[in-house]
């Protein structure tokens, strides 16, 4: 597997390429995710014997580019924006034509707000066979209302959460446990191939391993 860093439309991208890949994993990341990206790829290899490539791209403004509609601040003073549509457009119209070539199976995944973005994208397009939402921000205002009234176009959805995340001091973020249980229940009722996996620890523990587990589950259970 070769690794390449390049710039596409002012976004820094990282491609881990396997020439024989049948699965392409796509992941929006921040600086913290980038630090663990090499280990994430190695862990996916350990958990699955199927060939894959992974392309990750940097998100400059986490609170603006990954959320589907605006919302007031939950922590700090920065509100959330509605940039998810533009980010999805970047993936489908620019990133995929650059890297997909003849790779038949596409999987989109992300951690935290990027996990929420991946979930949302799975409702917008059928391009992605699988969605890996690791510790996704399903506490996001109106998200569960949206999920209750819509059905994903993706065939499979992996969900995970840390077992201490719903004990957060922030009252909005503390809703994440009930929200992800509801998300999983909705997907199950809609006959989506899904799993909800609980990991030890809070939101900031082993994000690279949690992402790897999600991607590997989707590759192995396609």
Automatic annotation (TrEMBL):
<protein>
    <submittedName>
        <fullName>Predicted hydrolase of the alpha/beta superfamily</fullName>
    </submittedName>
</protein>
<dbReference type="Pfam" id="PF00756">
    <property type="entry name" value="Esterase"/>
</dbReference>
<dbReference type="InterPro" id="IPR029058">
    <property type="entry name" value="AB_hydrolase_fold"/>
</dbReference>
<dbReference type="GO" id="GO:0016787">
    <property type="term" value="F:hydrolase activity"/>
</dbReference>
<keyword id="KW-0378">Hydrolase</keyword>
<dbReference type="InterPro" id="IPR000801">
    <property type="entry name" value="Esterase-like"/>
</dbReference>
